[in-house]
From TrEMBL:
It holds the Pfam family TetR_C_15. PANTHER family: HTH-TYPE TRANSCRIPTIONAL REGULATOR BETI (PTHR30055:SF234), HTH-TYPE TRANSCRIPTIONAL REGULATOR RUTR (PTHR30055). SUPFAM superfamilies: Homeodomain-like. Residues 75-135 form the HTH tetR-type domain. Keywords: DNA-binding, Transcription, Transcription regulation. Residues 98-117 bind DNA. It comes from the Bacteria. This is HTH tetR-type domain-containing protein. One of its GO terms (molecular function) is DNA-binding transcription factor activity. Gene3D superfamilies: Tetracycline Repressor, domain 2 (1.10.357.10).
Length: 262
């Protein structure tokens, strides 16, 4: 069974009924489930997520000058504009990229770009929010599978989650580096969302841990996940691999201590 859904604005897919039931058991902490728009079902997650998020943002911010796409062709145009912007930001950097270059890369007129995105900041905001939701999708899957994993397996999946996403989406790295200079970016930051999910994962893995200790523990795990990202750039490769193994052992020990709470 394959189910498409949206949770708090993020789309994801679950491939079997066991994962779906596991996710529903913890839905009270995540929020309600609603069906994804029919026009986006079956489309790649990144494109669907970005378009869905732009539709949500546009409905809330029409007073800022951007217009929400009103039909399927408009949705596809927005997806093309965002893909072009992502490529430009990776190649030239955020500051050096112009709106004219984004429109040209997408094969669209500058007027079409401004029709949906009145500023370069609004383009970056849509992309960052879409990538944040991409991370949410992955964390949803980790959350659903947490009951089936050993402590060592959970440690490995957590350490690879953030690092692997950054490798697959270089534009995410570029945009995160400039996010602090964009004054009206995200209401809920990527860091806060990650801590929410980590708290839920830890509550499943270590049900005996006091509620007041969940958030601090989630912060510790998050910092270890960031350490895994930093290790990806270390050389030589043999030393990097040894350090990564030790980091996974450290996280496994920490998760084991949390699970020992009674």
């Amino acid at each position: 069974m394959r189910t498409s859904a949206v949770v708090r604005g993020s789309s994801f897919s679950i491939d079997n009924s066991r994962q779906w039931r596991g996710l529903r058991r913890h839905r009270r902490r995540i929020g309600c489930i609603r069906a994804a728009p029919r026009c986006l079902r079956g489309r790649p997650l990144c494109e669907a997520t970005l378009t869905l998020e732009f539709m949500r943002m546009s409905s809330q911010n029409t007073s800022q000058g951007g217009r929400a796409p009103s039909r399927r062709r408009g949705h596809e145009r927005v997806a093309a504009l965002l893909a072009a912007a992502s490529d430009c930001f990776v190649e030239k950097g955020y500051d050096a990229t112009t709106m004219t270059e984004i429109a040209a890369r997408a094969g669209a007129s500058i007027g079409s770009l401004y029709q949906f995105f009145p500023t370069k900041e609004s383009v970056a905001e849509a992309l960052i929010t879409g990538h944040a939701n991409g991370l949410n999708e992955h964390m949803e899957r980790l959350l659903a599978q947490t009951p089936d994993w050993t402590t060592e397996e959970l440690a490995g999946h957590l350490l690879s989650a953030f690092a692997d996403y950054r490798k697959r989406h270089p534009a995410f790295v570029t945009l995160v580096e400039v996010a602090g200079s964009l004054p009206s970016m995200l209401g809920r930051t990527i860091r806060q969302r990650m801590r929410d999910y980590l708290s839920q994962i830890l509550a499943i893995h270590a049900p005996g841990i006091p509620a007041g200790e969940l958030r601090p523990a989630a912060m510790v795990v998050q910092q270890l996940m960031k350490a895994a990202v930093a290790l990806d750039n270390e050389q030589p490769a043999t030393l990097r691999k040894a350090a990564q193994n030790q980091l996974q052992q450290a996280l496994s020990l920490y998760l084991g201590q949390l699970a020992a709470h009674r």
